[in-house]
Write a structure and sequence with these properties.
single chain; Beta-Lactamase; Heat Shock Protein 90; 3 domains; five-stranded antiparallel sheet; 13 helices
């Protein structure tokens, strides 16, 4: 059984549509405000959506003139042209809500003609676009703000695609200021066109690490400006996801940290010089002993001793000279300027070198240094002198914590893949729990001769090596400094 629709009927076998009912249905249900004005611009009919948009009741409008409701003069002029048969669609205009609020509108006006083809009325259609216009204005304001920021910032801002070539989609004008490359010489090219093969490999490792851990991609890079100056940049690379939660592009922001790097270098040098000054007395004492032996046996050699005795004395002199050579070389390696270059190095060699530097200090304090290494040799990419400075700080602190002598234990163990744990444990007086929280604060020290930079500098160096440190201490029992580092 077919359904019956009151609007539709059949006449002479053809579909007959009740146009009056259909028009009324459209008039009532359309999402736009709909009005009919007579030739005197008076409201003849308004639909519910129109009253909803403007806040008036239907009876407040019918019979009233369109001009009474504060519409812009342009709309009144348009109405006169519509009466001449013209049609206007999608006009951007404004209107007023009953409460005085200004509305942004999209309006259309068209003539309504009678059976003779004469214009008998004007049809107006209105849509409230206030919200979209507001968003558009805010977006325009935001774009203008971002444009001003990007054009005036000294930071290097770039966006590159997450494709094989890492193609640049955007580069800020600051690239030209620093490196003489305008954005148009960068956009469209690959990231790998501007970095070395070694840097490209390092960046790939950082991307893989991000995929595994989700940790931010942070790194420092030394570069030369168009003026020939060397600067240091700190890069922060963040992923931008698409609607499918896939990484579509990367945003890279680089900040000039040259002043910070130089200040850190100055602090490291100050800490290193402080260590050298404090170790000098111990080194001098350690060298004095073999020098005394050398002077004594040199005099005996002049005394006409037998060939057998001469050979024995010369062996002793040779051993003492080698001992002096080791002490002086280790001391000088710490004292000379340190270029921060990461190379493959053996961990045990660095630790043993540290012990040699501090052996005179340990002897003065009646301290024994005992090591515990795994059978497997451990290698790492590091700045050997920088790590040595860190270990010297920890070992020196441990020795000074035992004024009456004792043992320092250095233990090395592999804790997980590509991570090694190094512990420096003393039997000293320990650290007050209230003080531990302040350790590492620049220029905070508990020593009479300290400058309060050792732990600050050490922590920074360890961070640059992808490592971290932890201090555990108990008063009267001792302190343990644990260092975790990346290894090969």
């Amino acid at each position: 059984m077919s359904k019956s629709y009151p609007i539709f009927g059949k006449k002479n076998g053809m579909m007959n549509i009740d146009s009056e009912k259909l028009a009324d249905l459209f008039f009532t249900c359309t999402p736009d405000g709909f009005i009919i004005l007579d030739m005197d611009n008076q409201f003849v009919r308004v639909n519910p959506m129109y009253t909803a948009i403007f806040g008036y009741e239907e009876h407040e409008l019918l019979g009233k003139n369109f001009d009474e409701f504060g519409y812009p003069g342009r709309d009144t002029e348009i109405l006169e042209q519509v009466k001449q048969g013209l049609t206007f669609t999608n006009l951007r205009t404004e209107g007023y809500h009953k409460n005085g609020t200004i509305l942004d509108l999209a309006a259309s006006f068209s003539p309504f003609k009678d059976s003779n083809g004469d214009v008998a009325a004007v049809i107006g259609i209105f849509r409230d676009i206030s919200e979209s216009i507001k968003l558009e204005r805010e977006l325009k304001k935001s774009r203008e703000l971002y444009r001003v920021i990007i054009e005036n910032t000294t930071d290097l801002i770039s966006i590159f695609k997450n494709n094989r070539k890492k193609t640049f989609l955007f580069a800020s004008p600051s690239h030209e200021k620093w490196f003489g490359r305008p954005p148009e010489q960068i956009v469209g090219r690959s990231l790998y066109d501007f970095i070395s093969d070694e840097e490209a490999a390092s960046f790939s490792v950082l991307l893989q690490q991000f995929e595994r851990t989700g940790e931010p991609i942070l790194f420092e890079k030394e570069m030369r400006t168009v003026q020939g100056d060397t600067i240091y940049l700190e890069y922060n690379v963040s992923p931008i996801y698409n609607d499918s939660n896939e990484i579509e592009t990367f945003l890279a922001i680089a900040r000039n940290i040259t002043d910070r790097v130089r200040n850190e270098a100055a602090l490291r040098n100050l800490d290193r010089l402080s260590i050298i000054g404090q170790l000098a007395a111990g080194v001098a004492h350690e060298i004095r002993n073999p020098l005394t032996s050398l002077k004594g046996f040199s005099k005996l050699l002049h005394g006409g001793t037998s060939a057998e005795k001469q050979e024995e004395y010369l062996d002793i002199i040779q051993n003492e000279l080698e001992r002096i050579d080791i002490i002086v070389n280790e001391f000088m390696s710490l004292a000379k300027p340190q270029a921060i270059v990461f190379k493959r190095a053996q961990l045990y060699s660095i630790i043993e070198s540290t012990i040699n530097i501090l052996q005179p200090q340990a002897l003065l304090h009646n301290v024994q240094v005992k090591t515990n290494y795994p059978a497997t040799n451990i290698e790492m990419m590091c700045s050997e002198n920088q790590l040595k400075q860190v270990f010297v700080n920890f070992l020196k602190n441990a020795i000074e914590a035992m004024p009456d002598g004792g043992n320092v234990y250095i233990k090395v163990q592999l804790v997980k893949k590509n991570r090694v744990l190094i512990k420096f444990k003393d039997e000293g007086i320990g650290i007050d729990p209230e003080i531990i929280g302040y350790l590492g604060t620049p220029f905070y020290t508990t020593k009479d001769k300290g400058i309060g930079l050792g732990l600050t500098v050490s922590n920074k160096i360890l961070q640059e090596h992808g490592g971290k440190m932890k201090i555990d201490s108990q008063a009267g029992i001792g302190t343990t400094v644990s260092v975790e580092l990346e290894c090969l």
